[in-house]
From TrEMBL:
Family annotation (InterPro entries): Cyt_P450 (IPR001128), Cyt_P450_CS (IPR017972), Cyt_P450_E_grp-I (IPR002401), Cyt_P450_sf (IPR036396), Cytochrome_P450_fam2 (IPR050182)
Pfam families: p450 (PF00067)
Residues binding heme: 389
Gene Ontology biological process terms, A to Z: monocarboxylic acid metabolic process; terpenoid metabolic process; xenobiotic metabolic process
GO MF annotation terms: heme binding; iron ion binding; oxidoreductase activity, acting on paired donors, with incorporation or reduction of molecular oxygen, reduced flavin or flavoprotein as one donor, and incorporation of one atom of oxygen
Alphabetically ordered keywords of this record: Endoplasmic reticulum, Heme, Iron, Membrane, Metal-binding, Microsome, Monooxygenase, Oxidoreductase, Signal
Highest taxon, organism lineage: Eukaryota
Cofactors required: heme
Subcellular location: Endoplasmic reticulum membrane; Microsome membrane
Family membership noted in the UniProt record: Belongs to the cytochrome P450 family.
UniProt topology in membrane: Peripheral membrane protein
Name of the protein this chain belongs to: Cytochrome P450 family 2 subfamily C member 76
Length: 444
């Protein structure tokens, strides 16, 4: 255990100002924000463990970026720990994590599927969910599924984000000793379905592997495993392969599709924003070719809309817990090795100095006076530092291409007057699922 160099005696460990019992588990992020108003750093007790909550841009930046190495441990997340058991990329630590973290067509398939709705009212949840599933699936298994494939439907039918961020998960994480919670068996049942699918795919890949011609993530991993067969310390193991595939499938699917789903809701509420995006696309890309990533820099308004959707919906209000990798001094306080760290991303994405009127969804938050795209360090939807989202680039690409492809091809028509669409639940953070809604996709 690394000893801290002698220095001035640090003040007593952080004051304990809260207790999980005082947090409203229905909306843990909001409760944390309320508690954290008193200062940028506070300690709460989650179950029996002290957890440090960081609030506001300065404290979060100082921890995740300036002291990034020490804050790069992954904190405990009991429900997922039980599943991941320390393997994979998202919930592993140290060498294991370092070794494994690696590195338009689907948007068009989505447009085709939306055309088939024939402008009649539909809930786009399922179709939006197919896109990221197929993108990840192509990277990992080198195959996409038809949207009516039975196996695909079974796999997709595992609502992870709801579980990850929902009430049930908060409760389970706060009180891990409550092993039997109503509904928790579904989580493990879903995991069992996913795991057996992954095992089947890995087996198929092992049988057809051509060491000189890897086709996808599994092939690369299997080759690396073979090369490191004699290295006892290698992290390229079967357990890690399975856990990493699971991490990518879960972390990279509902996050993106839920963002898009909320995003469409915001666009239904603000038809003037959709109209402006379409105008920009028409002007820059035209009607006859599909938007691509190279167009992004020439579509500042559209880029700002995608950022604003992510800022406003605040998908991961308290991110995923970190843990400090050693005893450290942080802001005059001593934080002991292993202490869980929660970053209150809401306090950054809703900072009213950086984003005036943050409760209002306004693409102007990311535009300067001349209408150019304005980057903001406060855009922490993917967190920041060494442990930031591993799929950020992919997610941004998907969100941009899905949004531009939809708006190039369709006008979104709500079934109710936009002023009656309630988006207040959207930014309330954790545990809120957009209400069931339908809309018509009218071909332009
Ligand atoms: C809109 C979409 C997404 C959002 C808002 C999002 C957000 C996040 C956040 C906040 C974290 C926690 C970072 C931290 O602990 O500091 C995270 C971690 C992670 N995300 Fe994402 N994510 C998205 C999409 C994706 C995609 C598409 C993938 C995969 C291809 C992905 C893979 C991961 C992984 C593997 C981690 C764990 C990284 C690690 O522990 O080193 N995410 N994401």
């Amino acid at each position: 255990k690394q000893k801290l160099p002698p220095g001035p005696t640090p003040p007593t460990p952080l004051p304990i100002v809260g207790n999980i019992l005082q947090l409203n588990t229905k909306n843990i992020s909001k409760s944390i924000s309320m508690l954290a108003k008193d200062g940028p750093v506070l300690t709460v007790y989650c179950g029996m463990k002290p957890t440090v909550v960081l609030h506001g841009y300065e404290a979060i930046k100082e921890a995740l970026i300036d002291q990034g190495e020490e804050f790069s441990g992954r904190g405990s997340f009991p429900m997922l720990d039980k599943i991941a058991q320390g393997f994979g990329v998202g919930f592993s630590n140290g060498e294991r994590w370092k070794q494994i973290r690696f590195s338009l067509m689907e948007a068009l398939c989505l447009a085709e599927a939306l055309k088939k709705t024939d402008a009649s009212p539909c809930d786009p949840t399922f179709l939006l969910g197919c896109v990221p599933w197929n993108v990840i699936s192509t990277i990992i298994f080198q195959n996409r599924f038809d949207y009516s494939d039975q196996k695909f439907l079974t796999l997709m039918n595992s609502p992870w984000i709801q579980v990850r961020s929902g009430f049930l998960l908060n409760l389970y994480n706060a009180f891990p000793f409550l092993r039997v919670l109503p509904g928790s068996h579904n989580v493990f049942k879903n995991y069992a379905i996913q795991r057996s699918f992954i095992l089947e795919k890995v087996k198929e890949h092992q049988e057809s592997l051509d060491m000189n011609n890897p086709q996808d993530f599994i092939d690369y991993f299997l080759i690396k495993m073979e090369k490191e067969r004699h290295n006892q310390h290698s992290e390229f193991t079967m357990d890690n392969l399975i856990a990493t595939i699971w991490d990518l499938l879960t972390a990279g699917t509902e996050t993106t599709s839920t963002t898009m789903r909320y995003g469409l809701l915001l666009l239904l509420k603000h038809p003037e924003i959709s109209a402006k995006v379409r105008e920009e696309i028409d002007h820059v890309v035209g009607k006859n070719q599909s938007p691509c990533m190279q167009d992004r820099s020439r579509l500042p308004y559209t880029d700002a809309v995608v950022h604003e959707i992510q800022r406003y919906i605040n998908l991961a209000p308290t991110s995923i817990p970190h843990a400090v990798t050693q005893d450290i001094r942080f802001r005059e306080s001593l934080i002991l090795k292993g202490t869980a760290i929660l970053t209150d991303l809401t306090s950054v994405l809703y900072d009213d100095k950086e984003f005036p009127n943050p409760e209002k969804s306004d693409p102007g938050h990311f535009l300067d006076e001349s209408g150019n795209f304005k980057k903001s360090d406060y855009f922490m939807a993917f967190s920041a530092g060494k442990r930031a989202c591993a799929g950020e680039g992919l997610a941004r690409m998907e969100l941009f291409l899905i949004l531009t492809t939809i708006l190039q091809n369709f006008t979104l028509k709500p079934l109710v007057d936009p002023k009656d669409i309630d988006i207040t639940s959207v930014h309330k953070g954790i545990g809120t699922i957009p209400p069931f809604y339908e809309l018509c996709f009218i071909l332009v």
